[in-house]
Amino acid sequence: MSRLSDRTRLIASATRRGEGRRPVNPPLERASTMLSDDPARMQDPTDGPVYGLDGTAAARELKAALCDLEGGIAAFLVPSGLASVTLPLMALLRPGDEVVATDALYGPTRRFLNRYMAQRGITTRYHPAAATTEEILGLITQRTRVLLLESPASLTFEIVDVAALAQACRARGVLTVMDNTWAAGLAFRPLAHGVDVSVQALTKYVGGHSDLLMGAITVADADTARAIGNSLDDMGWHVSPDDAWLALRGLRTLPLRYTEQHRSALQIARWLEGRPEVSRVLYPPLPGSVGHDQWSRHHDGGAALIGIEMKGGSATAAHALMKQLALFGMGYSWGGFESLITYETPQLGGRVHPPVMNGALLRIHIGLESPSDLLADLDHGLAAWRDAL
Ligand SMILES: *Cc1c(COP(=O)(O)O)cnc(C)c1O
């Protein structure tokens, strides 16, 4: 049989045969202590997990499915998306090493580099979010050990040439780690493009229901897997069986939700583009948007996350728009079934190379509601914006 599509494989991994009569889904096992029958085999991992920290059935199935989706040899689960970025960096970097990263990094990742890592003698050089491949490679020195990628970039959605960067880094002995939350393991495959470590916040699309926090790390080679696995053991981090079970449930319907939300987002992005209150719509799948050319080359779909650069306006007008909306929750995170809105201008302040904006920056996440209802709601919001200017 030819290679099955993602949506089939994510379901076929549940209906596999040859295991006798059983439920479709793995049992929800809550465990710290695991009991053995034979004192000589108490430490033997071939008999199953030795201790609760090793993870129970749902975590094992979730890791196997993520490995298959991302094309890795090993996957690790950690308690949050943030931990999925920090753990590989802790595992791979030593005092004196340097990291090169985009200036548009997810805020808490940047804080980790600037505080925790800097205190331990690891420095970060930030490139402008819109830098070319040559400009990024130009920041690499003898001390650079890791290139940390996030593409599209947080909030401003620039896309870099990941394949070219990964190839050039490999030739120089620099490891690449990519935060792939936006693509959810579906719209872009970092490992297939030569990236060493692909991480994502399962909190977002894989969970899909705004009810859990978790991160996943997927790797392509045994040495990196060993380094990250050892650090995970050393830290003692763990994800609850209940959360692993929920993430696995989310994974079964991920492709359908992701595709549908992308379709709605594209419709809404097109509508926003025609609005006189809007200066630029930041949505790589939208023709003419930032990142669109690079997106067309390597991506298949995208997260339903739209940056809206307004014409002028301040926090007051942005807040008036947000208060007017009835269908968009005001809240952080994204990837769930519900639409959300945030005001992001203040978050741009921490950058070394702040982007030039023509006005207030809003970000919306498009959920599974009917797009026509969302458009009508946004129309009301924009009326409130105009009144507040
Ligand atoms: C949300 C997010 C994270 C962190 O995920 P948490 O589970 O909230 O810690 C990391 N990277 C990106 C790009 C994110 O959007």
Walkthrough of the structure:
The chain has helices spanning 6-15, 57-70, 81-92, 107-119, 133-137, 162-171, 222-235, 241-273, 292-298, 315-324, 371-388, and strands spanning 74-78, 98-102, 123-127, 144-150, 175-179, 197-201, 215-219, 278-282, 305-310, 329-330, 340-343, 361-365. Helix 2 (57-70) runs parallel beside helix 8 (241-273) and helix 10 runs antiparallel to helix 11 (371-388). The longest helix is centred in the middle third of the chain and has 33 residues, at 241-273. Helices cover 38% and strands 15% of the residues. A 7-stranded mixed sheet has the order 1-7-6-5-4-2-3, with helices on both faces. Strands 8-9-12-11-10 form a 5-stranded mixed sheet, covered by helices on one side. It is built from 11 helices and 12 strands. With 389 residues, it is α/β, with parallel strands linked by helices. Bound molecules: pyridoxal-5'-phosphate.
Please specify the SSE layout and strand pairing.
Blueprint: H1 6-15, H2 57-70, E1 74-78, H3 81-92, E2 98-102, H4 107-119, E3 123-127, H5 133-137, E4 144-150, H6 162-171, E5 175-179, E6 197-201, E7 215-219, H7 222-235, H8 241-273, E8 278-282, H9 292-298, E9 305-310, H10 315-324, E10 329-330, E11 340-343, E12 361-365, H11 371-388
Parallel strand pairs: 2-3, 2-4, 4-5, 5-6, 10-11
Antiparallel strand pairs: 1-7, 6-7, 8-9, 9-12, 11-12
Helix pairs in contact: 1-8, 2-8, 3-4, 3-7, 10-11
Bound molecules: pyridoxal-5'-phosphate.
Pyridoxal-5'-phosphate binds next to helix 3.
